[in-house]
Fold these 3 entries.
Entry 1:
Amino acid sequence: MKDQIKDITSRDVDFAKWYTDVVKKADLVDYSNVKGSMIIRPYGYAIWEKMVAVLDKMFKETGHENVQMPMFIPESLLNIEKEHVEGFAPEVAWVTHGGSEKLEERMCVRPTSETLFCEHYKKIIKSYRDLPKLYNQWCTIVRWEKTTRPFLRSREILWQEGHTMHATKEEAIAETKKMFKIYEKFQKEYLALPVITGRKTEKEKFAGAEDTYTIEAMMYDGVALQNGTSHYFGTHFAEAFGIQFLDKDNKLKTPYQTSWGCTTRMIGGIIMTHSDDRGLVLPPKIAPVEVIIIPIGNDEKVDNCIDLIKEKLKNADITFKVDNTDKTPGFKFAEAEVKGYPIRIEVGKRDLENNKITFVRRDTLDKIEFDISNIENISNDIKTLLNNIQNEMYDKALKRRNSMLYEAKTMDEFTYIANNKPGFIKINWCGNTDCEDKIKETTGLKSRCILEEEVADGNCPVCGKTGIHKVYFGKQY
C-alpha cells in the first residue's frame, strides 16, 4: 500500500492523472467493457448512499414524495417541447429494436424526465385541490458524452431529479429557490464545499427553462464543477402538454413547473476539493466509515481495549471499522490514508503500558494522544474531533477558493488573469450574449453564474457599456 501511495501522481504535477489515481487507489470505481460507463465499487457507492440518505430526508421534510418513471421515452413524447429536445439532441441514446423486431417508433433512454412527468401530470392534475405536486425520483439517466471521467462525466449517470407543479407563478418560483437553498446547505454543511451560487445566463440556462439557478464549486485546480441546478419552467412544458386545472374561481388555468437535480459528480467534487497526494480525504459527515481502528501486534490487552472502544463508539452511533487483517501496521496506516477515513485510532501494547492510544486525523495527519483512563469520554472526544475536522476542511477549502477569485475591469486585465491564474473572474456584464461569446472565444472561459445579491458598479470590459449584472466566468469540468 505504501507503493500505491507512491504511485499516486502529485496533484500539482498532473491534476487529471492525480484524480484518476485517487479514484482507482481508493477503490471507488472500476472500468468495464461498457465504453464511457463506470462500475461504482462498494466504497464509492457507500459514499453515494450517504449523500442519498441526507438529501432524501431533506426532500421529504419539505413535503416531497419519491416516484419512479420509465427509463424509455417515445420520440413523439420527447418532441413535444422543441426547445428542450434541441438542447439534448446531441447526447440522446436511441433504442430502435425490441428483440429482433424494429420498433414502430424509436425510443430514447431518458436523458432527463420532464416529458414523462408532464404526461403523467396531465392525467392526474384536474383541480386546484390536486396541487401542488411535489415529486422526486432517484434513478439513472443516459447522455452520450464523447469524453468521460469517473463521477464527473459518464454516459450512465446516477442522480435525482425533482419535478413539481404549482397553482401559481409565485409558488413555483419559491419552490425553485427553496430546493436551490437545500442543495447549497447540503454542499456547505455536509460536503464541506464553499460553493458559489447564482443564476445562469440566458445562453447557459437549462433547455426549456425560464430561469436556472446553479451551484458552482471550485476545485483545487481552480476549475468549476457545476454541482447541482434548480430550474423554473413557468408554463412552457405545461402548455405544450395541455396540462390544465380548474381553479377556485372555477376557471381553467395552466400550472407552473419546476425541476431540480444533482448527481454522483458531487463525489468527484469532494475528491478534487479535499483530497491530497496520499489519497482520499472525506468530510466526516459524508464518510461511510468515520473511524478506522488499527491494532498493533497480537496482544490480549490490545484486543480488550479495542473491544471497549468499539462498544463506546457503537453506543454513540459513530461508524467504525477494525482492521484485523494480517497486514503490517505500516501497510494498514497507508491503506487508511488512501481510503480517507477521517480518524485513525492506533492501539498498541507499548502505548497501552503508558495508558495511551493515538488518534490520527486524515485531513492534517496530526497525531493526538488519548489517555485511556478517560475511556468513558472517548466517544465525546471523537465526536468533537470529527466536528472540528468537518469545519476545518470547509475553512481550508474556503481559504483556497477565495485566493483564486479575481475581478477584472478591462478586457486586457481579464485576458491576463485568464491566461496566467487559475480560478474565477468577476466582471460587470452588460447582459449581451455577444460579449459572453467573445470572452469564451478569446479565453475559453464560460459564464458560471449571475450573482443576484451583488449590484453592478462599472462597465462591461468587453463592450464598455454599463454593466447590469455581476457575473463570474471560469473554466469548467
Note: The chain has a mean pLDDT of 96.
Entry 2:
Amino acid sequence: MDNQTNQLPAFKKLEELKAGVLFMNLGPERIELAFRLIKSQLNKVDYVAWIAPNALFMSKIYKKCLDEQSAGFRSKMFFFPIECVSNSDARYLRLCNLVDKHKIFCVVDDSLTIKNMEAGRTKRLLALANRIKYRLILSSLPLTQGLVDLYSQIQFMNSKLLNMTESQFANIYLPYFEDEFKTWKRWSLPEHEEALVKKMRPYIYDADFDFGYKVRDYDVYFDLSPQEALAYAEEKNSFLQKRYQVPFMEVVHTFQHFYTICRSKVEALFDLVSEITLRGEKVIIYVRFLDEIRFFQECGWFEKNRFVVLTGKTNKQYAVKMFEKNVDIMFSSYGVDNLGLNMQICNNVIFFSQTFDYKRKIQMMHNFYQPDQPREINIYNFWVKTGLDEMMRKNLMMKQDVLNNVCNIMSKEEALRL
C-alpha cells in the first residue's frame, strides 16, 4: 500500500469483505494507512469507533496522529479505551448504542488485547462484531503465545471464516503432544500455520514486520552453589509435602522465587551493568518479583540516585522521564512499561528473571521502535540451571518459532504481490 494505485485493491476488498487487518509496527504509518481505509468508506458510515489501549491514548504522539488523520471529520470520531469495554458498563453501553443505531466503522488498534476468549473485553467486542458495518484490526504482530491468538482476531473480522468453536479450532490446528518434560500441551505445526494464514489471506491488507532495529541476543547461564542447590531442594520438598494437586503456575511462581536471587547471577549483573554504564549507555533490567527490586535497592551496590524503578505501583511517566534525563539504570517489572512509553534512548536490556509470558517480552521490544533510524539492541537473558528455567527457555523458543514462521508466511505473500 505504498501508493494510491496499490491501495485500490485494498479499498475494493474492504468494501466487499467489510473487514481486514493491518499487521504493521506501531507508528504514524500504521495510523495513516488505517485512515486511508476509513476514508475510502467514510460516505457509507455514520461514525468511526476507534478502540485502543488507554496507554496509547495517553501518548501525545499517538493522539497527534489521530487528530491529524481525522481532520475534516473529527465530529464522526468516537474513542474508547479497550480497558473500558470490559471495566465500564456505561462506556460499553455507549458503544452498543452507537453500533445498534448507526452504521459504524470500528477500528481495534493492538488486536492482541482481544486474543483471550475468556476476557470480558473480547467477549463484549465479539458480541457486537456482526452488527458493525466495517471492522479493521491493527497489530504489530499477529500472535505472541501461539496460533490460538489468531482465533479471536479472525472471529472479530468474520465469524463465518472459521465457523467453529475455540475447542474445535484447537483440535484442528493445535494437536496435543508430549514434551521432554513429560507435559502434555497443544502446539501447532508449520502446515497448520500455513493453512490458517491461507484462510486469512484475503483479509490481510498489509504485513510489515521490519522493526527497524537489529537484536543481539546473549544467553548467560548460572549454576546454583552447593548450598543454594540444597536449600532449593529443601524448599521444593517442603512446599510439595502433603500436597496432591498443585496448580502449575503456583508451582512456577513459588519455585522460581526460591532461586532467582542466586549469588552467581547477582554478581554477573553487577559486572554487566558496570560494563554498560562505562560505555555511557543505559540499561533496563527486567525482574519478575518485587522482592528482587527490594533486594537491589537494599544491597548497597547501586547508589540511590543512579537508578529508577518502574512497577505497577510507581508513576510510570515520571520514572521514564527520569530514565531519559537523569539516570542510566532502570529496574522494571514485566508488563508495566506498556505501549505508548518511549524507551528509545536505551539499547541494553537484561532479563534478570524469566517469564513464560512471551507477550511481555515482545511488547518491551515495541518500545524501542524508531521509524527510519536503525538501531542495535543488546538482549541479555539470564538463566539459572534448573529444570524450571530450562522449561521456560524451551517454551519461549517454541513461541518465537511459531511467530517467526507466521510472520514469514505473511511477509512472503506481501512480496509475491509486488
Note: Residues 282 and 351 are 14 Å apart (CA to CA).
Entry 3:
Amino acid sequence: MTEQQHDVSSTFKSQDTEEWLDIVFTRPIGYRWALFFNHFDIHPNTVTVLSMILGAAAGVMFYFDADTTQGVLLNLCGVLLLMWANFYDSADGQLARMTGKKTQLGRILDGASSDVWFIPIYFFISLRLFNKPIPLCPDHTWGLWIFVLCAVAGFGAHTYECQLADYYRNIHLYFLKGKAGSEFDHYAQQKQKYEQMPFRGHATEKIFQWFYVNYTHTQELVTPQFQRLWRALKDKYGDDIPQDFRDRFRAASLPLMKWTNILTFNTRAIVLYISCLIDEPWIYPVFELTVLLAIYLHMRHEHESFSRRFADELLA
C-alpha cells in the first residue's frame, strides 16, 4: 500500500461500510479535495454547502432533452456537476475526520445534502417529460402524472431508502467501532437537544435540528424490532455491550451493507446518468419505485428479522 493509499484509507469510516466504487474512485478524489480545503482552513460545513449548490445546479441540466448534440452536452454537464457534488460530499466527511472538526450541524447538513441535490433533479425531470408521450401509450402525454410519479419516487421511496440505509450503516459502525466511530443517534436525545436549544442566536441550527429530530424519529418508527433489541441491550448491559455480542451482530449485519451502499448514491446516480443521456429520464423514477424499493423492503425485513432473534435471546 502506498503512502497516499494509506492516508486515504485512514479517512474511511470502515472497510465494512465502504463501497468498492467509492474506495477506488470517489474517496481518492474526495481526499485530494479534502487536502485542498484543509490547506486553506476551510470548514467541512462550507464544503457541504458547496456540494449542495453543485448538486442543485446539476438538476437544472437534466431539464434539457438529449436529442441534440447541445442537449447531450448539457446533460453531460449535469453528470459532471453531480459527480463534483459527490466528491465534495466525500471530502467534507474526510476533512472532518482529518481535522477533528466534527459538529452536530455538520452531521445534519451532510444528511440533508442528498435531498438538496435530488429535489431539483426530480422537479426538472418532471418538467422535461411534461409534454412528452408516455412509452407504450404514444397518444398520451405524461402531463401532471409525471410530477406525481416523481413525487412518489422522491418523497415516498428515495427519502426513506436513504434514511434507512444511513441508519443501518451507523448501527453497524456502532457495534463495530463504538460510539466514537459512529453517528448512531437517537430520537429522544435529539429531541431534548432541540428543546434545550435557544432560538435567539441559534435560529439556523435550531431549524436544522428540527429536521434532524424528525429524521431520527422516522428511522426509529420503521425499525421496531431493532428498537426492542436496543432497549433490551441497554437494560441488560448499559453502555458496556460485550464484545462477543458486538461480533455476532456485526456478522449478521455485514451482508446488508452491500444493500445500504446501493441505496445511497452510486447505483441511483448511474441509472440517472444513463436514463437522461439516452433521453428516457422516466426510467429513473420507475427504477426508484421498483428495483430500489424492493431492495429497501428486503434489507429492512432481514435487519428486523435478526434483530428480533437477538432480542428474543436477550429477553428469554
Note: The beta strands are 133-134, 137-141.
